[in-house]
Amino acid sequence: MRFAALGVVGATAFLATGTGLAAKNDPVVVTPSSPWNVHYGETKCRLARTFGEGSDMHVLILDQHFPSASAGVTVAGLSFRRFEGREETNVRFSETIAPFTSEPFKGDIGQHKYALVFSSVHFGEISEQGAAGIPQLDNKLAADINFLSFSQGRRNVRFETGPLGPAFEALNTCTQDMVREWGFDVEKQMTVAKRPMLKNIDRVVKRIQRTYPSAALSRGESAIIRVRVTVDEMGEVENCVLNDLTVTKALESPACREMRFAEFDPAIDVNGKPIRSFYTTSITYQIGS
């Protein structure tokens, strides 16, 4: 486990130093007060940065539990106190790219009581399971990203991130190291022309949802389940791991238990031969509407 800081933060010039200073329909705009910090963990890669200071401090976190063109995004700060969980939220990260909508969970992180958790924000347009090599965040797109904004109705909070190229590069390096830790040869995985395909995904997801632990059901809990499956050259499931759990616990969990019923097409390399590889997915479980 290790940490790294990216870049240097100069004097902070706040476009809006408090939620009360923004005009009624203008966004609350916060600028960086720290460099990006990368956490190279055993089960996830985390990129975090603070914006603003004191009572106006906000936090932006990007998490990856496996190589992907997507990342889990958490934003927190006083400006989100009137945002609602599981409500349609507009997300935008470029003036030239259309915004998209998502329904985040509401939560808190540490000293920040008001947080929104997005299970997956896609930074790109390529289908990952059909993409060649190891999925990764799009560095070319990162150069065009200058901010991340989140809005519900008239409520709008904008993080002035600046270009995200170095940050994405750090996360891509971290997730490739993760693949190596899983026991794969990174160079060989780069030769994958077609990733493993789960042929009966609807059936598997329904079984996972149906067998969600009764204790969690009774408490009305929701969850984001990160699943990694090793698929051999024959398309058979070799093992299944849930993030942040030991292999033993994961094998006893509903998600990995139901992966016994998964049917995969194996990964194919550039020479047209099947190759042992991995399949990853996130399953969001919610109760009620």
Summarize the structure.
The protein is of the alpha+beta class. The protein has seven helices and 20 strands. The chain is globular, with a radius of gyration of 20 Å.
Could you explain the architecture of this structure?
With 289 residues, the chain is of the alpha+beta class. The chain has two domains: 2-181, Immunoglobulin-like; 191-285, TolA/TonB C-terminal domain. It has seven helices and 20 strands. The protein has helices at residues 139-142, 165-181, 186-189, 201-210, 214-219, 247-252, 254-258, and strands at residues 2-6, 28-30, 36-40, 45-51, 58-64, 70-76, 89-92, 100-102, 105-109, 112-122, 148-152, 155-159, 192-194, 197-198, 223-231, 237-242, 264-265, 267-269, 274-275, 277-285. The chain has a seven-stranded antiparallel β-sheet with strand order 1-3-4-5-6-10-9, with helices on one face. Strands 2-12-11-7-8 form a five-stranded mixed β-sheet, with no helix packed on it. The longest helix is centred in the middle third of the chain and has 17 residues, at 165-181. The radius of gyration is 20 Å and the shape is globular. The two termini are 39 Å apart. Mean pLDDT is 85; it is low at 7-23 and 245-252. This is TonB C-terminal domain-containing protein. Keywords: Signal.
